[in-house]
């Protein structure tokens, strides 16, 4: 297996989806859409605390083609990067029989969007093709949700504003797969812009495109290719611990909290875990705002320092890293040409994002390959566009 992950491009995926659609459903699709994956540069585990996040959209995309079928049934085929095919059929929701989550589990990501699409949808057929790595912290889940939503816009002619679209897709993920995610993934997947990161204020839901004029630098992403299946409750637990800290401080979220508030929490005898989570969130919010500022000033040295601080905090205070992520960050730490590195995404596996000198990329890959115990894959992340309809 090559350790180089390269995007196939939306035209290639579109062609594959269209051919499979014709073979499966006997006619041509009438609409097509795509939505990217994303990598978060900094601001981890703070979107659900109404903090700031700084993601970029990736060149990896989920493409979906479809047509209304007037049968009241939704028939969906998903072709994964490995070539494996998944299939699901369910009845389109009606006033008397709304959709409910069920099996197969993956179809909940589609059903949730169908259930939340404004004005409802009658039956449709669709084929999904993706090259977004699935379950690697690059947000294949928001990618499939926003791609389906955009397809439904194309099929029905009904559209909503971009922030509203992101919120409806987030609601879909909450209600159907049952994942209480923050707004970051759906937001950047909806609103990404080429050559820009997006500083999102998860409280006001306003955002600012930050130009990424990296010059001789590049964003190198290393996928550890591990995903630890813990109990599945880690994410909701972290969320609940952060909310407990906010409740104890009489705040709606930790966004309004300051370092001084940590002392108040200590005095209330709250658990060591809650205190650590709160410290991470408060400091990570400061770090993310600062990266937004210094990125514009092209102070990449400082961006890198903040990356390392973020990683150490996620590992020691939020406790969402794992030995593989820590190992990759440690291999990169101090290596020639590396400004900073950190885990990215929800944690317990997935990817490390690093700011590095372009001409050191190959050496750094070799370094990771020779020391890292697993089988990593790499890509250099080019900030790309958000979701859109595609011409057939
Ligand atoms: P991430 O979003 O980081 O990739 P998640 O655990 O949030 O990881 O989402 C991964 C899940 O989303 C998969 O297990 C699968 O159920 C679903 N999923 C994502 N993309 C697809 C796809 N193209 N086809 C089918 N299911 C998908
Ligand atoms: Mg996800």
UniProtKB/TrEMBL annotation:
The keyword Magnesium applies. Residues 19-66 form the Galactokinase N-terminal domain. One of its GO terms (biological process) is galactose metabolic process. Pfam families: GalKase_gal_bdg (PF10509), GHMP_kinases_C (PF08544), GHMP_kinases_N (PF00288). SUPFAM superfamilies: GHMP Kinase, C-terminal domain, Ribosomal protein S5 domain 2-like. The keyword Endoplasmic reticulum does not apply. GO terms for molecular function: ATP binding; galactokinase activity; metal ion binding. GO terms for cellular component: cytosol. Residues 108-193 form the GHMP kinase N-terminal domain. Signal peptide: none annotated. Residues 296-372 form the GHMP kinase C-terminal domain. Keywords: ATP-binding, Carbohydrate metabolism, Kinase, Magnesium, Metal-binding, Nucleotide-binding, Transferase. It comes from the Eukaryota. InterPro entries: Galactokinase (IPR000705), Galactokinase_CS (IPR019741), GalKase_N (IPR019539), GHMP_kinase_C_dom (IPR013750), GHMP_kinase_C_sf (IPR036554), GHMP_kinase_N_dom (IPR006204), GHMP_knse_ATP-bd_CS (IPR006203), Mevalonate/galactokinase (IPR006206). Belongs to the GHMP kinase family. GalK subfamily. PANTHER family: GALACTOKINASE-RELATED, MEVALONATE KINASE/GALACTOKINASE. This is Galactokinase. It comes from Chrysodeixis includens (Soybean looper). The lineage of its organism: Eukaryota, Metazoa, Ecdysozoa, Arthropoda, Hexapoda.
